[in-house]
Amino acid sequence: MDARFTDEQDEIRRALRELLRKRCGTEDVRAAADLPQGHDPALWTALAERLGLPGLALPEAYGGTGCSATEVALVAEELGRALAPSPFLATAVLAAPLLLALGTDAQRASLLPRIARGGLTAALAVPGTRLGTALALTGPGGGDWAGGGRAGGVQARHRGERWQLYGEADQVLDGHSAGLLLVPAHTGGYARSRVQLFLVAGDADGLVRTRRTTLDPTRPQARIQLRHVAAEPLGDADTDVRPALAALGDFVAAVLAGEAVGAAERALERTVAYVGQREQFGRAIGSFQAVKHRLADVHVAVRAARSAAYYAAWATAHGEPAGALALAQALEALRSAAAEGIQLHGGIGFTWEHEAHLFFKRAAGDDLLFGPVHRLRARAADAAGLFGGREVAV
Fold first, then answer.
1. Domain-located, residue 79
2. What band does 318 get if pLDDT is binned at 50, 70 and 90?
3. Does residue 393 form part of some domain?
4. Which of 2, 92, 123, 176 gives 222 a disulfide partner, CB atoms 3.0 to 4.6 angstroms apart?
5. Which of 68, 40, 43, 41 is CA-nearest to residue 56?
6. CATH of the domain at 137
7. Are 85 and 202 in a shared domain?
């Protein structure tokens, strides 16, 4: 592994940081999260037109830039620093790679160029509480992650020459605003039930989407209800989606680890700046040994998490699984940085209005969506065979 970044990678980071510095201050983030879309459409357009973020990991044949997981993770790191609400995770990291991996030639040609241009957003309608399992990050990818059984999740029925979906999924990332939904649904009846992915237009008849109140307002989620909604199978009718989701999981984890590292670093920077200004007993509290030790511990955790995240991005591009462990370490670093930030900001840090809580909510929210951390570690231990094939109890 060559740990040096190329000039192009450094330029991507610099350009994105400069744009977000101007457009994504704390008040901008709060205002964007309160919009009906859950993000600023003008900022998303700028990110697409100026930096090509939606198509970062898509091949040039579909209008993308053909970048590796390393570039995607670096972009996520900068988005994490700003806590920028955007469809990047749902569209470019979760949905677009599945369209590329499983879609037919016609589906790819129709949808991927629109995503790459930023004109179409997409969402994977896996219930938020089951994302970690569906992506094989906290489990083997089987079980009832798609809702399970005869009456759970979403059911697909073949009516003549058309497919129809009926059911619901909750806590779907960006599900309320995405122009395209990738919906996992059960087919084959109860006895031969299996999960297949379907494409559903955001304006389809019978589709009801309701934005939910979330712990982290920068990660908008929705309840998706389908009532005999017309759908199109993604790829061939007999496609097994589980291997594609499992392959996607390590990429998603590496990208999320980069994002968490960016948020943790920014939270630490803001706290260090504050303790250098706040005085107690005639001295800046940052000069107290106890405060120095606490922030030094956070600094070490963030640096270690960054190394793990960068390695995971490189390893993913080379077919080596490392994303789950990197994500676990990054989420722990972010939680630690956010918690210390709240503590060391004193009374003002405990108010909901302070920006320190945005970082803490991001840490807690991602742990709920993609973790928890101990399950990420246990799954990685099982996959590596550390306990002789015996599954780790969690």
1. yes
2. confident
3. no
4. 176
5. 68
6. 2.40.110.10
7. no
Does residue 135 share a domain with residue 188? yes
Q: Is 371 helix (H, G, I), strand (E, B) or coil?
A: coil
DSSP for 141-174, written as a single string: S-TTTT--TTTSSEEEEEETTEEEEEEEEEEEET
What is the full DSSP assignment across 259-286?
HHHHHHHHHHHHHHHHHTT-EETTEEGG
Q: CA-to-CA distance for 218 and 226, rounded, in angstroms?
A: 25
Helix (H) or strand (E) holding 314: helix 289-317
CATH code: domain of residue 322: 1.20.140.10
Which tokens in the block code for residue 250? 């390590």
Per-residue pLDDT band for 141 (boundaries 50, 70, 90) equals: low
Residue 47 parent element (H or E): helix 41-51
What DSSP character marks residue 129? G
Are residues 281 and 324 located together in one domain of the fold?
yes
Cβ distance 259 to 362 under 8 Å? Answer: no
Report the pLDDT value the prediction gives residue 186, as an integer from 0 to 100: 86
Report d(CA 241, CA 106) in Å as an integer: 19
Domain residue limits at 224: 124-240
Long-range interactions of 275-278: CB distance < 8 A, separation 24+ = 275/344, 278/346
In a domain, 149, yes or no: yes
Strands 279-280 and 283-284: antiparallel
How confident is the model over 218-227, as pLDDT tens digits? 999 999 999 9
Give the other-Cβ count within 10 Å of 286's Cβ.
18
Which of 240, 256, 282 represents a domain boundary (last residue)? 240
Report the C-alpha gap between 252 and 258 in whole angstroms: 10
How is residue 74 written in tokens? 């670096």
Contact status, residue 178 vs residue 169, Cβ threshold 8 Å? no
* Dist CA 380 CA 234 (whole Å): 29
Q: How far is CA 166 from CA 126, 190, 227, in A?
A: 15, 15, 5
Taking only Cα atoms into account, the Rg of the chain, rounded to an integer number of angstroms, comes to: 21
**Farthest-apart Cα atoms in the chain, separation:** 80
Secondary structure E strands in 53-193: 122-124, 154-159, 162-173, 180-187
Residue 292 binned pLDDT confidence (cut-offs 50, 70, 90): very high
- Sole residue written with tokens 């991602």: 366
Give the total number of structural domains in the chain: 3
What are residue 273's phi and psi, to 5 degrees? -65, -40
